[in-house]
Amino acid sequence: MTPTSTPTFAVVGHPNKGKSSIVATLAEDERIAIGATPGTTRDAHRYVFSIDGEPQYVLVDTPGFQRPRAVLDWLQARATTASERPQWVAQFVVEHASDPRFHDECELLRPIVEGAGILYVVDGAKPYGPEYEIEMQILQWTGRPRMALINLIGPGDHVAEWRQALEQYFSIVRVFDAVHADFARRLALLKAFAELDESWRPPLERAVAALDAERERRQQRAAREIAACLADCLRHVEHAALDEAQDAAQQEAALLTRLQGYIRRREADARDRVQAIYRHESLTRDEAASDLLRGDIFTREGWDLFGLSRRQLMMSGAVSGAIAGGGVDLLLGGASLLLGAGIGSLIGAAGAWFGSGELARVRVLGQSLGGRALQVGPVTAPNFPWVLLGRAWVHHRLVAERNHARRESLSIAMAEADHLMDDLPESLRKAFAAAFRKLGGRDADASQQQRLEALVADALQLDQGRRE
Known about the structure:
By secondary structure, the protein is α/β, with parallel strands linked by helices. It folds into two domains: 8-196, Rossmann fold; 218-467, no CATH class. It is 47% helix and 12% strand. It has helices spanning 19-27, 68-76, 85-95, 103-113, 131-141, 159-166, 183-193, 201-235, 248-277, 300-306, 310-316, 336-351, 384-401, 426-440, 446-467; strands at residues 8-13, 45-51, 54-61, 117-123, 146-151, 172-175, 238-241, 360-366, 372-379. The strands form two sheets. It has a six-stranded mixed sheet, sandwiched between helices. The protein has a three-stranded antiparallel sheet with strand order 7-9-8. Helix 6 links the parallel strand 5 (146-151) and strand 6 (172-175). Helix 8 (201-235) packs antiparallel against helix 9 (248-277) and helix 10 packs across helix 13 (384-401). It is elongated and about 95 Å long. It starts with 7 loop residues before the first strand and ends with a helix.
């Protein structure tokens, strides 16, 4: 291996010890099959982790050892000195390439004899056994740089005994929970890789720097998507010709349903985009009613969890400019009593949890060709943008820190939390409140959306700083 080549690591070990989970996490690839049944991986697969098309490192997911005792016996019968051992390991792969008995061993040893470093994975939740020593000896015979990773798959804890055994065969031993490792732990592991071979240090240091820079870019892109969603939902209106022969309240209800439908779809689209930014395109979202993040945005529970408290709404100035009570802005007279009754019974119930008497503004407009049109929107409830922001903030936290070995649906348990947006610094809350008012105004322009994007980026960065 030359100093300019891409560092390559073969992830090897006993079957069903989390090898594929480690590869999925470090390669940020959710397509990698992960299963509880031994033998999920039968052939070696290379996964190149790239940023902007530039390869940073390569991980090779390999099958587990199946007949290590037979392999070691073959090697010991031929190698007479330590210096001969690597060449006899390579010869074993050549001679048994077509032997189905040693298919898995050849698959896992081939990338190693071709120059890959070794990441040996064990399950620290299970007791250490002497049978693993045979595998360690084979890997030691390759002469390649070696690191052992103690993965924690179950509730047991046998890390100490594993560490004592592994340190006899591997220069570096690390505990690494493949399924729950956050960004900082992944970076720490990459830095440890650089200690295995001096020639890997420069490219791996570049990879760590590239990952740090990529994380900042992802956060900025996510802030842009969240800000665009907020702006679209704050500005959106629904129109329909007013049918004088039909009940006005029913027509208002239908338009309100359309407005709410647009907001739900726009929020879902923004979440899909944020997940794509973090390479989680296939991540499913649990729609269980008990999961508040997955629940509908138009719920009392959502207001209590994600929005501002009434006190903070007043302190931030978010209420100013909002329509209170049953205020209906009618440009034409003659229908105010009819429409006002409809708003009180239909829109008021949906909007009360936002902290005002209605969810969205309702207007009756004259049309140039005659007749009248009904307009619902934009949303004027003062807590609405805070709830939407809070949901996006929590979703981003889950996605940004989630690694690619996890396969369960995205969900969150925050039963003890209350009014998440109250935790923002006062200066940031006031800046958001001003941005929300300007975006909802008739003179909103691109500069106000850019200002909102910068504020969202500040909120996401603040959340990251607290977790680190």
